Amino acid sequence: MTPSLSRRFGRSVVTLTLFATVAFLIAPIVLTVVASFATSWTGVLPSGFVTFENWRAVLGLADTIGSQRSMGWSPLFSLPLGGETLSVLVPAELAFSIGLALGGVLINLVVGVPIAYAVSRYEFPGKEWVNAVSVLPLVPGVILGVAFLRAYPDLSATSFGLIVGYSLLKAPFMVMAVQSEFESMPLRQLEESARSLGASWPRAFLTVIVPNARSGIVSGAIICWALAAAEFNFSYIVWAKGTQPLALFLQRHISNSSFTKAAAAVSMFFFIIVAVTLLLQRVGRRGFDTRGS
Questions:
Q1: pLDDT in tens, 37-64
Q2: Is this prediction's pTM over 0.70?
Q3: For 34, 160, 165, 189, which has the most beta carbons within 10 A of its beta carbon?
Q4: SS3 sequence of the chain
């Protein structure tokens, strides 16, 4: 192909390929969301629009029994209103899973960011080993779940145990995302400049290094949260009683409910992922500045 033909058709081919790829990836999501408002889905396309019964069943606003039981509702907080108390209710599994995943992300931030900085900034004996150990939990959730269950049997049955497990499973994604950002920065020059102006090392790290690595930290937090919220294998092995993690709730609906109810459950999870992703991005743009006002 001549250069002129390459310039003429090359951009069009790339654009069409991009749009075809995006459409191929988005089509199942759109079809699932549409099916959540249908009464049946027996063929290629759902039929019987428009109904909200699937969403009412999933959110616990309709009577359900057995393996198809929906979310329970629990009070998030209470407000005094006159002589009465107004309680704000939220779906229990939803609030529980969001809290678990965010707890895991918090641990990943506190532990993963300093590890990524140390590996990127300093040369020290055993650096390769530290780098390898930091990505060691990058194993299937079943393997880590069994190991975690045997090593910490008392901790495993608690909510905190799930948080720690999620953080162990997803820590490599935080370390790799932040390490990649750090490696693109002149860390030595930034740190030495801040120290020459009288800043202590903790202050230089928190007010100069961390804000400049904001995009990598936010990206790592989004990845860790999304993967932790959808973690099924580890949750299935470790969870024993109480409120179910959202991944187990989705599995129950997918396995035992109709296609349309399963579509509503999956669509709900997708909207949660989008909402929390936008929230974390907003926090990263506006509230993730450790320098203060």
A1: 988 878 778 888 888 888 888 777 666 5
A2: yes
A3: 165
A4: CCHHHHHHHHHHHHHHHHHHHHHHHHHHHHHHHHHCCEEECCCCCCEEECCCHHHHHHCCCCCCCHHHCCCCEEEEEEEEECCEEEEEEEEHHHHHHHHHHHHHHHHHHHHHHHHHHHHHHCCCCCHHHHHHHHCCCCCCHHHHHHHHHHHCHHHHCCHHHHHHHHHHHHHHHHHHHHHHHHHCCCHHHHHHHHHHCCCCHHHHHHHHHHHHCHHHHHHHHHHHHHHHHCCCHHHHHHCCCCCCCHHHHHHHHHHHCCHHHHHHHHHHHHHHHHHHHHHHHHHHHHHCCCCCC
